[in-house]
Write a structure and sequence with these properties.
Blueprint lengths: L1 E6 L29 E6 L2 E5 L5 H8 L6 E3 L5 H4 L6 H4 L8 E5 L1 H10 L15 E5 L5 E3 L2 E10 L2 E8 L2 E4 L7 H4 L7 E5 L12 H11 L3 E5 L17 E3 L5 E3 L1
Parallel strand pairs: 3-4, 4-5, 5-6, 10-11, 11-12, 12-13
Antiparallel strand pairs: 1-2, 1-14, 2-3, 7-8, 8-9, 9-10
């Protein structure tokens, strides 16, 4: 299995519009962060986790031409607002093939609201084609790949993380219940959000993310969903088995 970090930034990305801080003006390419998303390549199947506003440039950068399915963590716009561009994967086939989208009922309801033109029954040529698949707390299969959902809390909003084999992806978490942490034991690779160094009301800060990593003890951990308030990539000091992810990073599991 291979992970491709498509984007590793928070909702504003880096650089932030109008900001002249040392991170936003950095010349280090690792400090250029599009909105968070990851591609999981597993036995020839590409699974996309989240589809934010930078989806088009991320897909072009990584030369992705086929997609088995999309796993959505939650409905915030930095995680779903690129879904219109998924239509390219439908129209790569003749006849067009609906993109398989997996998410909980609340998230899929938001997708139907935001992309109402794709669901109103009055479609016209060229609109995206989605097959929505509702998930809950039980394991499911996406394009032949077994996936275990893991619920975390984004302040008061439940968010889905996903475990695929010995890899797990957690974003926008502030707390994780003990029964959900139990699903994250024995990992080779854990990806978890770490917004900044100072505490935040709805995201892990760096200390909280590292505490979770120490508790779960994966082989390796990668931090994502990073804001410019974390500081420059090169200046962040981490334990030996933890690193800041950056856009374009590829990791073998």
């Amino acid at each position: 299995m291979e992970l491709v970090f498509l984007g590793t930034g928070t909702s504003q990305g880096i650089p932030v519009i109008g900001c002249g801080c040392e991170v936003c003006t950095s010349t280090d390419p690792r400090d250029k962060r599009t909105r968070s998303s990851v591609l999981v390549r597993n036995n020839g199947v590409n699974l996309l986790i989240d589809a934010g506003p930078d989806l088009r440039q991320q897909m072009l950068r990584e030369q992705v031409s086929e997609l088995g399915g999309v796993l959505l963590t939650h409905e915030h716009m930095d995680h779903i607002s690129g879904m219109d561009d998924l239509r390219a994967f439908s129209f790569a086939h003749e006849p067009p093939r609906a993109v398989q989208v997996f998410g909980d009922a609340r998230t899929l309801h938001a997708v139907q609201r935001v992309y109402a033109y794709a669901f109103n029954g009055h479609g016209y040529p060229g609109i995206p084609q989605f097959q929505l698949n509702t998930i809950a707390d039980q394991p499911f299969v996406a394009a032949g790949v077994p996936v275990m959902p893991v619920e975390v809390m984004h302040q008061q909003l439940p968010v889905k993380g996903f475990r695929i084999g010995a890899f797990a992806y957690i974003t926008d978490a502030k707390t994780v219940a003990p029964e959900e942490k139990a699903k994250l034991r024995g990992l080779n690779v854990l990806v978890v959000n770490a917004l900044r160094k100072k505490p935040h009301y709805s995201h892990f800060n760096l200390e909280e993310a590292l505490t979770l990593v120490a508790e779960l003890a994966p082989g390796r951990a990668f931090l994502t969903h990073i804001s410019h308030l974390m500081g420059r990539h090169a200046d962040v000091v981490l334990p030996a088995n933890v690193q800041l992810a950056h856009d374009g990073l590829k990791v073998a599991v």
